[in-house]
Specification:
By secondary structure, the chain is α/β, with parallel strands linked by helices. The chain has 14 helices and 12 strands.
Length: 436
């Protein structure tokens, strides 16, 4: 008999002196223990701002949203046309290939050859993924044993740490105020970590900080990794969104990098295809094989017409990439100039679709989360609090270049009023908390 007084077979009452209670539906049972992996995930800090945003929009309030890196421009027409053309094939709805169709993997290898001068075998060194985020998370599943120590920059895009945490790994956070400081911190962490770390994560152009590196940096990474028997995962999802004459390099340009490294990349920002979910993992064949094996149990790959259209994006004319890059640059310049006039100095990012902005002096003590909440409540402007990207992100907010120039200037006018009334806003906030 179970604790509810019911037989384990058929649900019939068992012989018992105690009165038989009506059976409680399973969905009404109180589940006291949390699921193991869920317990390892803290509340998503960025969701606090998202809830406020949803509430205000529900009240009909216009929100200028710089919070999420969600491209607002259309996917180039020739890519969409190829999707439509392929979707009309009666066979298009069948299962696809979990590692990506051959044509797409060849297109990805071709992109690396043209862009970085890196030769890849599309059969063994290229895996098409359902966006870079899925690729990163499944890499973590493929590489991580329980308790493995992973070296991760902080601040960083959340999947860099939590992909490994969900896979059972332990994160050694290394402050990443600059690329040089990060590598110095990695060297120190190697001396003081037990067990020895197994994976090193690098990501440039960085999300959220927009920091960039050159090939010499990657040479140091490869040398350090080989010295300490580390595998390296490099995330360059923003490699095509840059604003000077120095395109961000790939770690695979370094001789011997493929011995220990893979790179995660994406079409999401390059071609305004974020919702299409097309990414890639390329490089070390052994790591790619491990990822392919994991994916073979989890998915059948993206919808085939999406993969065909993605190959068209990579193989086709690239003037659309130049146009998208120019839009982000114009928005960056408008953001920096208009916010400066409003009283908020935001450094111009050299790359990516984000600015990493220090919290204005008036709100330093409030911190990035409270500043972000007050900014959306009082000014109708949404940003992502830096602490959502790790403890070393405190004191900053991430501002996405995902609104047009007109909206950016409107946001700056709102910010100017917000900063001018900082004392009153903070006073009202503290009075409200005291009354609760």
């Amino acid at each position: 008999m179970n604790l509810l007084g019911w037989s384990p077979v058929g649900g019939y009452p068992c012989a018992t002196s105690a009165p038989v209670k009506p059976r409680t539906p399973r969905h009404e049972l109180k589940m006291t223990p949390e699921f193991h992996r869920i317990k390892r995930l803290p509340p998503y800090v960025l969701e606090e701002v998202n809830r406020i945003k949803a509430r205000l929009r529900g009240q009909g309030i216009d929100i200028i949203d710089f919070g999420m890196g969600n491209p607002d421009m259309p996917t180039p027409k020739h890519i969409v046309d190829k999707l439509i053309e392929t979707a009309k094939d009666p066979k298009a709805g069948r299962y696809s290939a979990s590692k990506g169709i051959v044509g797409l993997r060849r297109a990805m290898a071709g992109y690396y050859q043209r862009r970085f001068g890196v030769t890849l075998n599309p059969d063994s060194e290229v895996i098409a993924t359902l966006g870079s985020k899925e690729g990163f998370a499944n890499l973590a599943q493929a590489l991580t044993a329980p308790g493995d120590v992973i070296l991760c920059p902080n601040p960083a895009y959340p999947i860099h740490a939590y992909g490994f945490i969900m896979a059972g790994g332990v994160i050694r956070h290394v402050p990443a105020e600059s690329p040089e400081a990060y590598l110095s911190g990695v060297s120190a962490a190697m001396r003081h970590s037990s067990p020895a770390p197994s994976v090193l994560i690098v990501s440039y152009p960085s999300n959220p900080t927009a920091q960039c590196v050159d090939v010499d940096f990657y040479k140091d990474v490869v040398a350090l990794a080989k010295k300490h028997d580390l595998l390296v995962i490099s995330d360059i999802a923003y490699s095509e969104i840059y604003f000077d004459d120095n395109p961000p390099p790939s770690i695979l340009q370094v001789e011997g990098a493929k011995d220990i490294a893979v790179e995660v990349n994406s079409l999401s920002k390059t071609y305004a295809m974020a919702g299409w979910r097309v990414g890639m993992v390329v490089g070390n064949d052994r790591i790619c094989a491990a990822l392919a094996r994991v994916k073979s149990y989890l998915d059948y790959g993206a919808y085939t017409p999406i993969q065909v259209a993605a190959a068209t994006a990579l193989n086709g004319p690239q003037d659309c990439v130049d146009e998208i890059r120019a839009i982000y640059k114009s928005r960056r310049d408008t953001l920096v100039e208009s916010m400066k006039r409003a009283g908020w100095d935001i450094p111009a990012p050299p790359a990516s679709m984000f600015a990493w902005a220090p919290v204005p002096e008036q709100f330093k003590e409030a911190g990035s989360l409270l500043f972000s909440k007050l900014l959306i409540e009082e000014a109708g402007v949404a940003v992502a609090p830096g602490v959502g990207f790790g403890e070393y992100g405190e004191g900053f907010v991430r501002v996405g270049l995902v609104e047009n120039e007109h909206r950016i200037r409107q946001a700056a006018r709102n910010v100017k009023k917000f900063l001018a009334n900082a004392d009153d806003i903070l006073s009202r906030h503290h009075n409200t908390l005291a009354a609760q």
